[in-house]
Write a structure and sequence with these properties.
Blueprint (H helix, E strand, L loop, with lengths): L8 E5 L3 H13 L3 E6 L2 H7 L6 E4 L9 H12 L2 E6 L14 E4 L4 H15 L10 E3 L3
Parallel strand pairs: 1-2, 1-3, 3-4, 4-5
Antiparallel strand pairs: 5-6
């Protein structure tokens, strides 16, 4: 795999603590710096003040199905490169404006690594091809 581009910090927006902790460990193992785990919209927007480069966002959070709106806000208001990671990728339909795409879960470490590399490349202004596990959204 190619070297990871400049994007280094990752916000994890996930309410299932075991899934979030596993994702956080994977992010760290891949050389990225987690800025925190947000189980709901309010926490995600609070952590966004730290200006993460990337956000991995689930759709269903502690406060309901708020992930799509959180992802849209992170992208539009904070310039975060957003990738949704959800067991329900079809619920995103044609996509969420300003976000990059969706990865189905569960996902193994290799798939998450490829997804992070893709998102980091997009954040760096490159045009990497999306890995097969990601359904990219139209720009």
């Amino acid at each position: 795999m190619q070297r990871v581009p400049m994007a280094r910090t990752v916000l994890i927006v996930e309410d299932e603590i075991l899934v979030a902790a596993s994702l956080e460990a994977t992010v760290e193992d891949l050389g990225y710096e987690p800025v925190g785990i947000a189980p709901d919209a309010a926490t995600a927007l609070e952590l966004a003040a730290q200006r993460p480069d990337i956000a991995l966002v689930d759709l269903n959070l502690r406060d309901g199905e708020t992930g799509a709106s959180v992802g849209a806000r992170l992208a539009a208001e904070y310039g975060v490169a957003v990738l949704f990671i959800t067991a329900n990728p079809r619920r995103l339909g044609g996509g969420v404006p300003g976000t990059l795409g969706v990865l189905g879960k569960p996902s193994d470490e290799e798939t998450v690594a490829a997804a992070l590399h893709y998102v980091a490349g997009c954040k760096a202004g490159l045009a990497p091809p999306p890995p097969p596990a990601i359904r990219p959204f139209a720009p």
